[in-house]
Design brief:
Layout (H helix, E strand, L loop, with lengths): L2 H26 L5 H7 L5 H19 L1 E13 L21 E3 L8 E6 L5 E8 L9 E3 L1 H7 L6 E10 L15
Parallel strand pairs: 1-5, 2-4
Antiparallel strand pairs: 1-6, 2-5, 3-4, 3-6
Length: 180
């Protein structure tokens, strides 16, 4: 995957979320015709101002998405049973079946896309812990991610990594909630 493809995927996802929001707001207001929609979007309508605020926030969030790593090859390992249920460095409980990972340098909440160089399988995960603490390894993934990448049996894999920093409120500040 190229940087352009990843950016397109992130942008498309954000546009889909905004479109669903607009559709939901329109459906909630019972809008059926173009005339009703125009009346709904009139400047004096307080809900129209809310839509503009949501759109402005979406544009701002999209501008803040940054690609940190662009297809860098790194050595990945996975951790599972021994740590299952324990608290991670971010404060949330580690669930070996969730799509999470540990990194020494990436901020909590960073979205990481990994591609196994041997088989081409992809996985998307979120950084919620610190590690690995073994020389030469750059990322520790959960069992769920390891299964997606097809590295459960070997335990190690060379992966290409794209890291997207997406601000997510509390997670960006290192405080995670229990429910993912």
């Amino acid at each position: 995957m190229t940087k352009r493809t990843l950016a397109f995927m992130a942008y498309s996802t954000l546009l889909a979320v905004v479109a669903i929001g607009f559709y939901t707001l329109g459906a909630a207001a019972g809008l059926r015709s173009q005339t009703q929609l125009e009346a709904f979007r009139a400047p004096e309508n307080p809900m129209a101002q809310d839509i503009e605020a949501v759109q402005a926030r979406a544009d701002s969030a999209l501008a803040e998405i940054r690609t940190l790593y662009q297809g860098v090859s790194v050595l990945a390992s996975y951790y599972a049973h021994r740590e299952h249920g324990r608290l991670t460095a971010s404060g949330e409980r580690f669930d070996m079946h969730r799509m999470t990972a540990a990194s020494r340098t990436l901020a909590f909440g960073t979205i990481v896309i990994l591609e196994n160089r041997d088989n081409g399988r992809l996985a998307v995960c979120r950084i919620n812990d610190r590690g690995p603490f073994v020389a030469g390894r750059s990322i520790d993934v959960s069992l769920g991610v390891a299964r997606e990448l097809g590295m459960e049996r070997s335990g190690l894999a060379t992966v290409r990594m794209w890291a997207l920093r997406i601000p997510t409120g509390e997670m960006a500040q290192g405080r995670a909630s229990e429910g993912d």
